[in-house]
Design a protein that fits this description.
There is one protein chain. The chain has about 230 residues and is of the alpha+beta class. It is built from 4 helices and 11 strands. It has 2 domains: about 80 residues, no CATH class; about 110 residues, no CATH class. The longest helix is centred in the N-terminal third of the chain and has 20 residues.
Length: about 230
């Protein structure tokens, strides 16, 4: 009887140890997006001073607070390329949201030029708005003669994901309305578009648009559900 009791206690102890040391599986969809895939870098969010750290330390590898669109960092995100050699920094607030791209050279992060000098992404979105105006027999000068002007509601560019280490999918959304100059609160028809761009990067970090797609309302709704 004594030996049976000892055996039972021993088995219970082993089972308890096994359960305490076992790691619970990570729920589907839960990933630490702040850490790079190679576990060497970590994004530290901050409303005023976001930064990239060397993972597991407080050593700052890159200060992300110096952005042309100001300090709209409360909802900023980092999207890492699969090889951890590049990342996109999505940031902004209010009516304007922007992207900065960075590439690792040696052990140093360098900002890449984005957008380009012509801002081809905005140009393509704006061209669609112009076509929408023309279909109504309008253009900006005619709007002005009516005492109206195109008012920006929002302009958003955001990296959704990396397809591979050199290919990123960028979402762009432009919304404008015809506003009255004598009554700024009154607005007429809205104009705009939602686009997906595929960007291809070369070894030096230069990029080009290799594909663009104007999204349908259904596609926009599906994207919003997946975000």
């Amino acid at each position: 009887m004594k030996y049976s009791l000892i055996f039972v206690l021993a088995v219970a102890c082993v089972i308890t140890c096994l359960f305490s040391n076992a790691q619970e599986p990570t729920p589907p969809g839960e990933t630490n997006a702040t850490v790079s895939p190679d576990k060497k870098w970590e994004y530290e969010p901050d409303d005023s001073a976001p930064k990239i750290l060397k993972a597991g330390t407080n050593e700052v590898a890159l200060d992300l607070s110096d952005q042309p669109a100001g300090n709209g960092f409360s909802s900023a995100t980092v999207v890492w390329s699969p090889d951890s050699k590049r990342f996109a920094f999505n940031y902004g607030q209010g009516r304007t949201h922007a992207i900065s791209f960075y590439q690792l050279r040696g052990n140093e992060w360098n900002v890449l030029k984005f957008p380009d000098d012509d801002d081809k992404i905005y140009q393509r979105a704006d061209a669609i708005v112009v076509r929408q105006l023309k279909r109504q027999g309008l253009f900006e000068k005619k709007l002005d003669r009516q005492g109206k002007y195109l008012r920006l509601i929002w302009w958003t560019v955001k990296v959704d994901r990396w397809v591979d280490p050199n290919t990123a999918i960028v979402y762009a959304s432009l919304r404008q309305v015809a506003a009255r100059r004598d009554a700024p609160g009154e607005m007429d028809d809205g104009y705009g578009t939602d686009l997906l761009f595929t960007l291809k990067f070369d070894e030096t970090g230069n990029w080009k648009i290799i594909k663009s797609h104007e999204m349908s309302e259904k596609e926009v709704e599906q994207r919003e559900k997946e975000q």
